Amino acid sequence: MGSLEGQVVVFTGAGSGIGRAVVTRYAAEGARVVALDVSEKVTELKAELGDRVVPLVADVRSWEGNVQAVQTALDTWGRLDVFVGNAGITDAARPLEDIPGDRLAAGFEELFGVNVLAPILGVRAALDALVESRGSVILTGSFAGSHAAGGGVLYTASKHAVEGLVRQLAYELAPDVRVNGVAPGVAPTRLKGTTTLGQTAADSVLDGTREALPLQEIPEIDAYSGIFTLLASRSDSAVMTGTMVTADSGLGIRGIARPGGRVRTAG
């Protein structure tokens, strides 16, 4: 029996990257998942995971899309135990001075709509069901949620906001619903850019990234699945709420001369 046996999950941003990997792990652990994404790629999960997943194509920025996801879970399995707000886009590390002033408001609205408004909408849509099941919320943050230079001005501000959401929602929803987050550092995936800034999807791992990491390895895309599983488990994380779990390959403790004390560098 898996650690999530019998639990029902609504999971946004499930079509690719970390989200797709975690949904696959959740299904293997016994969960039933409504997998939500704006991309049609999410429908591929049905063939891969069978009746454990119901794919849903919808915009996480809309109230209607979030309500539909929650209602799908209730109609299909009769309950909801976990809401995972994982959908996110990047600004491709665009600094403020490189964003034309007349496009700044539109870029802000698009990026914050996905990274901040969407999880708020999702939690609100799921709230009654989560209170009834005494369930939990998991939000995907970032290294950029507590550091500079993990993204551009818009992305960094949005991920700082996600950390605030985890703390505030954990306070507001205690004791009925636990709220936690995961702050990944590096993952080998392509991130959707901010279209109002003229951006398309781009590789998230840049040249030289491995050498900059204290752990000296680019983690596999499923490296974060265990943390998401831990936080969804009713037993293993029963005492955790308001916690942002940092999983950044050591970026937060990176040294100036060398990324890590035993890392060998050229020269």
What does this 3D model show about the protein?
This protein is an alpha/beta fold. It has one domain (8-249): Rossmann fold. It contains 7 helices and 9 strands, in the order E-H-E-H-E-H-E-H-E-H-E-E-E-H-H-E. The chain has helices spanning 17-28, 44-49, 63-77, 101-133, 153-173, 209-212, 225-232, and strands spanning 8-12, 32-37, 53-57, 82-85, 136-140, 178-184, 190-191, 202-203, 243-247. The strands form 2 sheets. The protein has a 7-stranded parallel sheet with strand order 3-2-1-4-5-6-9, with helices on both faces. Strands 7-8 form a two-stranded antiparallel ribbon. Helix 4 packs parallel to helix 5 (153-173). The longest helix is centred in the middle third of the chain and has 33 residues, at 101-133. The mean pLDDT is 95.
Shape: globular
| Percentage of β-strand residues | 15-25%
Q: Please report the distance between the alpha carbons of the first and last residues.
A: 52 Å
- Count the DSSP helices: 7
Helix fraction, binned, reads: 25-40%
Across the major sheet, the strand order is 3-2-1-4-5-6-9
Number of domains: 1
| Rg, alpha carbons | 18 Å
Main sheet, how many strands, which sense, barrel? Answer: 7 strands, parallel
Assembly state of the chains shown = single chain
Q: What are the low-pLDDT stretches, counting only 5+ consecutive residues below 50?
A: none
Query: CATH homologous superfamily name?
Result: NAD(P)-binding Rossmann-like Domain
